[in-house]
Structures are given as structure tokens and as C-alpha cells.
Specification:
Radius of gyration of chain B: 16 Å
Number of helices of chain A: 9
Number of strands of chain B: 5
Strand order of the largest sheet of chain B: 3-2-1-4-5
Order of helices and strands of chain B: HEEEEHHEHHHH
Order of helices and strands of chain A: EEHHHEHEHEEHEHHHEE
CATH topology of the largest domain in chain B: Nonspecific Lipid-transfer Protein, Chain A
Bound molecules: S-adenosylmethionine
Shape of chain A: globular
Helix content of chain B: 40-55%
Strand content of chain B: 15-25%
Largest sheet of chain B: 5 strands, mixed
Radius of gyration of chain A: 17 Å
Oligomer: heterodimer
CATH superfamily of the largest domain in chain B: SCP2 sterol-binding domain
CATH class of the largest domain in chain B: Alpha Beta
CATH architecture of chain A: 3-Layer(aba) Sandwich
């Protein structure tokens, strides 16, 4: 089949993927934060905290969080960039963005801008951001290379890209336990808590289809970044790729 | 993972106005310790420093030396003397190398402890050092407490402290 792409383990027409992904996040939006805490045993908060700490974002910086969902990163970036900075929380999905807005308001975080956008086509001027982040979002994007090129384009020289994403662990035991967990337990919990086993089956499958650490590093460099390094977190279950534009 | 701690400490210094990287802006400095598995790039850009283990791109200045020479440099030994004694190799502008050394000095990081991470395991001391360096600030944004939390977070979530992952690209 030509012009197909992965949607979890299924091959689907490229033009259909975006709609299918939207369906998943429309469905899980309202239970998204609760599910994250349950499924990762709270670890996602540490992964995100580490991501923001690695960003070197300073007071006054301009930061774009892509696929930002309920806004965990945006909240932390807002603290770092301060009043004089600018933080934009963006997502392709209106339901997730609405959850993000609600979440930030509930937490008393103001001054963050919200923009609905597709990572593949960023509506910003070139060389305009100090930092661009995407957490657990890239694997859902249909054309990842295009998205990375766009992120490179809008970053200033010296700007920093952060990609936090599930990855590959090279520890055999951990890998087996994790496989069992994600294919047998995660979808069941998704069924019980969010009443949506299918979406969590997709999430488990999409994690397996995502490029490993070295492949993603090369994709970041191919997109034009001068430097890219990754840090494995929790044994490589998650990796943070950090790219720097020269 | 130690380079993360170093990066945090250097940027904290810059944010506090205790270090000026103006003259280093736009420069990438390759730094290698011959006797330890430690090669780093210091990328000085956008008024901040990124410390990376990705050293694949060309740097403006190359610095190579042994760890004990590095420590003596931090204790006040002059680059020019070390150059004469062939204890340090610098390709590129020596002044830029000097600026980096000055910056590392002013960070008052206990490098002995950091370097010992490459041969042993001294996480607790490292946290102590971050705390020592960062205390006394009233800045609530990038505050010491936040920085310590960040440091702790990095240690907690990274099994890279274990021998299993040592020397990998973590
Ligand atoms: C797993 S959530 C991650 C949310 C948040 N960053 C976090 O870490 O909690 C993935 C998000 O990616 C968004 N997304 C999927 N495809 C996208 C695209 N092409 N452009 C922008 N966002 C996208 C989804 O709507 C969803 O909110």
C-alpha cells in the first residue's frame, strides 16, 4: 500500500492518521491527567520536571510547548520564563487544549497563551523562539521529519529543542516487564478508569512504533540541528532528546 | 549525567549576574580529559551555556588535558605555564580557553567530587555541592530550592548512576 503510515500497529492511509489520533485524544482528554499518574506511577511528573530543568530557559524567554495537552510543561516553563517571558501552550486537539486551559486556571497559572496548531506547520516566524518542547507528542505526528524541521525553523540560533518521548530500554528484563505491562495491564486500566481500552491499546502500540534513541537523534540532526544528545530516563523507557540550533 | 549538574550550575551563575559570557557567546569549546571517559562540548550561545556530550560537531577551540592538571588549573595554575610544560593541549584561541577556565573557576563547583563520579559513586556529596553553590539567593524564579529539586529529580529518575549505564550516552 502506498502513502500509508502507522497508527499503532495498523497501517492506515497517511491522510487518515491525524483524524484517528484526534479520536484517541478526544476520547481520553477528560481523564488524561489521572491516567498519566496511574499508568506511570507518577513518574511522568519527574520526567517532565527533568525536561524543563534541562531547557536552560531563562527569565524573558519565548517558549513553545507543542502537543502540550493539559499543560504540565507550560506550567513549569511559565515559572522559568517569568512575567517578561512568553509561553505558548499548543495542541492540535481542541478538547486537550480546553483541558489545558482549565488545568492552568485551576492551578492559578495565568499569562500562558493557547494556540491550536499542527506540529507539521507552525504558524510562527523563523528564528523567534528560545525553546521548543514536545512531550509524548511526536509519536502521534504523521510526518515527524517535517515537524522537526519546523521546530528548527522557528528556533533562534542558540535555541533549544526538547523531545520527551517513550523510547527503547536495552535492559532485557525491564523490557519484558514493560511489554507485559503496556499490552496487558495498560489497556485494561484504560478500560476501567477512562472507559476506553482501545485508545490505550493504541498508546501502547504507538510507543513500540516510535523510533529508538539513535534513530531519533539522527532525525533531529537531519532536521538541521547542530547538536543533539539524549538522556535515558528510567532505564530508557523514556528518553529526552535535546537539540541545539547553531 | 554530571554534565547536567555542571550546566545547571554555570547557567545559575550567569542568571545571577555573577558571570558574564558575553565574550564567549557564539563559541563552542571542546573539552577532553585524557584519563577519564569525559569529553564535553561547551556551547556558549544565546547568553547561556549548553554542556553536551555530543562532540561530533567541530568546535572553535579544543582543550585536552589530564584530570589532575585540570584541577591544578582551577587552583590557580596558569594556562601559559601548563602550555610550556606540554601539560595542556589547546587548538584555537587560548584566550577563549582562558575565559572558559575562568568561568569554571568562578562556578566554585567541587570538580574533585564531580570527577570522582566517573570513577566512583558520590551522589550525596554532589547534592551537597549544588546546595552549597546555590544557597543565599532570594530569587524566587530560578531559586536554589527549585534548582536543588531539579538536581534531585535528575538523580532520582536516572538509573544512569548505576554501573550498568555508565559511560553511555546518558
Ligand atoms: C500523550 S499527549 C501529551 C500531552 C502532554 N504533552 C503531556 O506530556 O502530558 C499527546 C498530545 O499530542 C497531540 N497531538 C497529536 N498530533 C499532533 C500534531 N500533529 N500536532 C500537535 N499536537 C498533536 C494530541 O492532541 C495530544 O494532546
Amino acid at each position: 500500500m502506498e502513502n500509508t503510515t502507522h497508527f499503532g500497529f495498523k497501517d492506515v492511509a497517511t491522510e487518515d492518521k491525524q483524524g484517528l489520533v484526534r479520536g484517541v485524544f478526544d476520547s481520553v482528554a477528560s481523564k488524561y491527567d489521572l491516567m498519566n499518574d496511574v499508568l506511570s506511577f507518577g513518574a511522568h511528573r519527574l520526567w517532565k520536571r527533568y525536561t524543563v530543568a534541562s531547557s536552560n530557559v531563562k527569565t524573558g524567554d519565548k517558549v513553545l510547548d507543542i502537543a502540550g495537552g493539559t499543560g504540565d510543561l507550560a506550567i513549569e516553563f511559565r515559572k522559568k520564563a517569568g512575567e517578561s517571558g512568553k509561553v505558548i501552550l499548543s495542541d492540535i486537539n481542541a478538547a486537550m487544549l480546553a483541558e489545558g486551559r482549565r488545568n492552568l486556571t485551576n492551578k492559578g497559572v495565568f499569562g500562558v497563551e493557547f494556540i491550536q496548531l499542527n506540529a507539521e506547520n507552525l504558524p510562527f516566524e523563523s528564528n523567534s523562539f528560545d525553546c521548543v518542547s514536545i512531550a509524548f507528542g511526536l509519536r502521534n505526528v504523521t510526518d515527524k521529519d517535517q515537524a522537526l524541521r519546523e521546530m528548527h525553523r522557528i528556533l533562534k540560533p542558540g535555541g533549544c529543542l526538547l523531545v520527551l518521548e517513550f523510547s527503547k530500554t536495552d535492559n532485557e528484563l525491564l523490557s519484558q516487564a514493560y511489554d507485559f505491562y503496556s499490552f496487558n495491564i495498560m489497556p485494561k486500566l484504560g478500560g476501567i478508569i477512562a472507559d476506553d481500552e482501545e485508545s490505550y491499546q493504541y498508546l501502547a502500540e504507538s510507543i513500540r512504533q516510535h523510533p529508538d534513541q539513535e534513530t531519533l537523534k539522527n532525525m533531529v540532526l537531519d532536521a538541521g540541528f547542530s547538536f543533539c544528545e539524549y538522556h535515558n530516563l528510567t532505564g530508557g523507557i523514556v528518553a529526552l532528546h535535546k537539540g541545539i540550533k547553531a | 549525567m554530571q554534565h547536567f549538574v555542571l550546566e545547571q550550575a554555570l547557567n545559575y551563575l550567569i542568571d545571577q549576574g555573577d558571570a558574564d559570557i558575553g565574550s564567549l557567546n557564539g563559541k563552542t569549546i571542546y573539552f577532553a580529559l585524557d584519563d577519564l571517559p569525559l569529553t564535553l562540548n561547551f556551547i556558549c550561545t544565546n547568553n547561556r551555556i549548553f554542556v553536551t556530550t555530543d562532540t561530533s560537531s567541530n568546535a572553535d577551540v579544543d582543550i585536552k588535558l589530564k584530570s589532575n592538571v585540570f584541577l591544578s588549573l582551577l587552583q590557580g595554575e596558569e594556562i601559559s605555564d601548563l602550555l610550556k610544560q606540554d601539560k595542556i593541549i589547546i587548538h584555537g584561541d587560548v584566550k577563549t580557553a582562558q575565559l572558559l577556565v575562568d568561568l569554571l573557576k568562578s562556578a566554585q563547583i567541587d570538580f574533585e567530587e564531580i570527577l570522582s563520579q566517573y570513577t566512583g559513586d558520590v551522589i550525596a556529596n554532589q547534592i551537597g555541592n549544588i546546595a552549597r553553590n546555590l544557597k543565599g539567593s532570594s530569587n524566587t524564579l530560578n531559586s536554589p530550592i527549585e534548582a536543588i529539586k531539579d538536581g534531585l529529580t535528575s538523580l532520582l529518575i536516572s538509573p544512569s548512576k548505576s554501573k550498568l549505564y555508565k559511560n553511555k550516552n546518558t
